Amino acid sequence: MTHTLPPQDNNPALSSRRNILKSAALATAASAAAFGMHAAAQTGAPRPAASAPAGRKVALVTGSSRGIGAATARRLAADGFRVTVNCVANRDLAAAVVREIQAAGGEAIWEQADVSDPRAVRRLFDANDKAFGGIDVVVSNAGIMRLAPMRDMTDEDFNRMMDVNLKGSFYVMREAARRVRDGGRIIALSSSITQLRSPTYGPYAASKAAQDFYANVLAKELEGRMISVNALAPGLVNTTLFTDGKTPAQIAGFAQRTPHKRLGEPADIAGVISLLCSTTEGGWVNGQTVFANGGVV
Predict the structure, then answer these.
(1) CATH assignment of 70-292, given 2.30.30.140, 3.40.50.720, 1.20.120.140, 3.10.180.10?
(2) Is 204 a catalytic residue?
(3) C-alpha torsion 84→92→62→265, nearest 10
């Protein structure tokens, strides 16, 4: 068997096309670098490091003292991330999540911060950066749910839900946009209730639909930095956020609505987040709302 080289191409048109493509690639790289400097100048925020230094990457998960947030913190730690756990009130639970991560050989800290306060959000990120030197992944998970028919919902319940879910997630994602290193991931927790649209869920669904828009728009704003931004929309998940106030019969009825005939578990959602945070597999999913609901919608 003989091996031959392909014939050389002397076609001037094709050569010109290759030169154009080469120039376009160089221009894209230059534009990405310029974009990063321009964005930092616009916000007044320090430009994050171009990429993580050698070693383990860093993740911050808001609302991670229990439920989906705690499962996500544990899963990302198992994936090799150093993790900042966050709570607003459940200090003992947050500390327990950190101890569990450390017992398994991981690195973690916990920090108390109410995401509805932008100053507290900045302090949360500052604590992460002081402990770990920067950040690669932010999961905006903190949220609350208040349910009532619209005619019965109080101003207090509505305002608090918007303060945490709508404003709080914005503050977290804004800080993430300023600090996440190139090639990182930002994930906002949405909800499949935006599609189910069940009675009593109106304001809650509206606060979660905002996450879909946040993620899609921020993905475009961070162009050129290889940061993927997505919203993740769980369905019926076995957490106190979902089960509180429901009878066992009601919970069983909800489980029967899914093709798998069960509620999702926090670990199910954490597994999807893990995939989206993967540096080798998750990056091409960007600007999307990913539904992880067992097929309920």
Answers:
(1) 3.40.50.720
(2) yes
(3) 110
In DSSP terms, 259 is beta-bridged to none
Q: Model pTM?
A: 0.82
User: Considering only CA atoms, which of 125, 131, 135, 113 is closest in space to residue 186?
Assistant: 135
137 neighbors 180 (Cβ within 8 angstroms): yes
Are 263 and 295 in contact by the 8 Å Cβ rule? The answer is no
Q: In terms of C-beta distances under 8 Å and separation of at least 24 residues, what long-range contacts does 248-257 make, across chains too?
A: 257/296
Dihedral of the alpha carbons of 79, 82, 85, 91, in degrees to the nearest 10: 110
CB 58 within 8 A of CB 257: no
Q: Supply the DSSP symbol for 162.
A: I
Give the model's confidence band at 92: pLDDT under 50 very low, under 70 low, under 90 confident, else very high. very high
Give the N- to C-terminal CA distance of the chain in Å, as an integer.
Answer: 58
Instruction: Kindly report the number of other CB atoms within 10 A of residue 14's CB atom.
Output: 10
Q: Which of 230, 134, 129 is nearest to 185 (CA)?
A: 230
Confidence of residue 46 (pLDDT cuts 50, 70, 90): low
Q: Tell me which amino acid residue 247 is.
A: T
Q: Where are the domains of the chain?
A: 70-292
β-sheet with 289-292: strand ranges across: 108-112, 82-87, 58-61, 135-140, 180-189, 228-234, 289-292
Instruction: Note whether 66 and 90 are within 8 A (CB).
Output: yes
Phi, psi of 23 (to 5 degrees): -65, -35
The type of residue at 82 is: R
Residue type, 153: M
Torsion angles phi and psi, residue 276, rounded to 5:
-65, -30
In the three-class reduction of DSSP (H, G, I as helix; E, B as strand; rest coil), residue 284 is classed as coil
CA 93 to chain centre: 21
- Residue 62 — φ and ψ, nearest 5°? -80, 155
